[in-house]
Each structure stands twice: as structure tokens, then as C-alpha cells.
Design a protein that fits this description.
Elements (H helix, E strand, L loop, with lengths): L7 E8 L1 E9 L6 H4 E2 L4 E2 L15 E3 L8 H12 L5 E4 L4 H14 L5 E3 L2 H6 L5 E6 L4 E4 L1
Parallel strand pairs: 2-5, 5-6, 6-7
Antiparallel strand pairs: 1-7, 1-9, 2-8, 3-4, 8-9
Length: about 140
């Protein structure tokens, strides 16, 4: 626990950044290509457990992403429009998600922090809790 009484979860950095937001926790991989609407920021995959929910400004935590490399284009557009999640945290490093964030930083001067966490930590998280995410080039943490 930190001095504020919050639980500290270790993150492995993929793309650095600091943010805070409500958790959107999923047990299912999401494809941004065909499963997410960049204009509204909402999950459109009817088979996904976050179907219909807006991810705008939320810290999205899920096992992995799925689908094609076109997912980076959809996520990039979401970053440009300001409808993107505040951060994306998965169990394994997701190059497609990182590419969108890297390109957005270069093109728009804004990006999404991306990191990984353990399966045990993913299982311990609950939807809706407000968290702080801090990710540097060498370390990361989420305060829950």
C-alpha cells in the first residue's frame, strides 16, 4: 500500500505516460478494428463484455487485443478525436497498440500510456474504480 492507503500494482512499460480514470476491466480481448467505434469511443462488438460502453477517458484493462494491424489505425483515429481510453493495460505487450500511441505522439502531441500487468493483478481489479497510472520508460505503477 502507498502512503495514501491505495494499493500499488506494478506495471511493465510499453509506452510511457501518466493518467487517471475509471477502470474498464474486461476478461475478453478486444479488436479495435470492427469492435470499437473511434467516433464515439464505444465498444461495438456485441460479443464483448464491454459492449455498448464508452471507453473514452477510461483505463482499459484486458488480457490482450485481437484482430489485424488495422486496429492501430482505429486507435490512432480515436486518439486524434479525443475518444480514446486514458490508458491501455494488457497481460502481454501489444505492439499494435503501442504503434498507434507512438504515431499519435509524433502527429498530434498526445498519446495513450500502454503497459502490461500480471494475470493475478488483472483478476483483482473491479470495473469503475478510479485509478492513477504512472509509466516511465523503465517502470510503471497503478494506484488503485
Amino acid at each position: 500500500m502507498s502512503g495514501s492507503g491505495r494499493r500499488r500494482i506494478a506495471l511493465v512499460p510499453v509506452m510511457p505516460g501518466d493518467t487517471r480514470g475509471a477502470l474498464a476491466v474486461s476478461t475478453i480481448a478486444l479488436s479495435f478494428w470492427g469492435g470499437f467505434d473511434a467516433r464515439s469511443g464505444s465498444v461495438t462488438d456485441v460479443h464483448h463484455d464491454l459492449f455498448g460502453q464508452s471507453l473514452t477517458g477510461k483505463v482499459l484493462v484486458m488480457p490482450a487485443s485481437r484482430g489485424s494491424s488495422s486496429s492501430s489505425g482505429v486507435l490512432l483515429e480515436s486518439i486524434r478525436l479525443g475518444t480514446c481510453p486514458a490508458a491501455i493495460i494488457t497481460l502481454v505487450a501489444e505492439p499494435i497498440l503501442a504503434v498507434a500511441s507512438i504515431i499519435a505522439r509524433e502527429l498530434y502531441g498526445r498519446w495513450i500510456p500502454v503497459a502490461t500487468l500480471s494475470g493475478e493483478d488483472l483478476a483483482s481489479l473491479e470495473d469503475g474504480h478510479i485509478v492513477c497510472v504512472r509509466i516511465s520508460d523503465s517502470a510503471g505503477e497503478m494506484l488503485v
